[in-house]
Amino acid sequence: MSRLGNEGEDIIGRWSEEKLDLLAKYLKAYSVIMNEQKKRWLRAYYYIDAFAGSIRPRAKEDEQRYIDGSPLRALQTEPQFDGYWFVDVSSRRVERIQELREEFPDRVIDVCQGNCNEVLCNEVIPQLPYSSKQRAFVFLDPYGLQVDWETVRELASTRTCDIFVNFSVMGVTRLLPREQNPEPAVVEQISKVMGSTDWITQIYQEPLGVQLDMFESSTQPTANRNTIQAEWLARLYTEQLRSLFQHVSKPVLMRNSTNSVLYALCLASHNETAIKITNDIFNQYERLRNLGR
Fold first, then answer.
1. Which of 36, 138, 16 is CA-nearest to residue 87?
2. Which residues are 84's β-sheet partners?
3. What are 67-89's pLDDT values in tens digits?
4. Could you tell me the CA-to-CA distances from 39 to 44, 46, 97, 128, 287 in Å, in that order?
5. Is the entire prediction scored with pTM above 0.85?
6. CATH class of the domain comprising 3-171+230-290
7. What residue segments make up the domains of the chain, in order of their start?
8. What are the angstrom distances between the C-alpha of 269 and each of 65, 86, 158, 245, 286?
9. CA-CA distance, 233 to 223, in Å (whole number)?
């Protein structure tokens, strides 16, 4: 999560910086492949940032150090995209993003202020039908639980969009009470984000926990509300994504300074090669993290 500094810029933790590094690595690979396809059949490919956020946030551990935010990472990617859509609900952020047109005069930049679900479904997706021979990379990096499952479904149905989604594991677990069943409004809220809530009934059953058979591994631990793990919830979300996309990467867990899981980052695509590249990037990141980077 980010907070605001004195000048109104976001201040972000180390995990957010690592997330942006992973994004940049994949964007480079994606753009190289898409640019090559333009020699064959592809007309154009685009970058879409549904929560564009801060242009140059500051590092939490050193507020004198600026970090390139996701809009800059995309605009700096070579080969460059044919166009960029930046969306944010904040007028302050949108105003700063619009200034990027002066910094990158050769880029085609569209900036929209508003709810990402409405902008994506009403303005962006209609411009990307499969017959258009266009493709798009969509970065869904919400501040919490703002991405509706129906929006993800719409993106998947185009068959032209890959989505790099940062799923708020923390946001879901915070909604689930430990001592009683969740209120219907909570179940409805989680369903709006995840598409299914059958698993909620299961984890509140007595005796505590039931064995879920949706995962391949026979050693999947019993899940109940008192022992529910971030890894399990992240895998659950990626399984949901597989009902919409042909291919989904492994989730990589984004942890804060106390090692608590905040988000799970993954890629969903209709292209198997995209997933292989993502998993390679994620595996390298996890190896370095395990070495105490």
1. 138
2. 47, 109
3. 999 999 999 999 999 999 999 99
4. 11, 16, 31, 19, 36
5. yes
6. alpha beta
7. 3-171+230-290
8. 34, 21, 11, 6, 22
9. 10
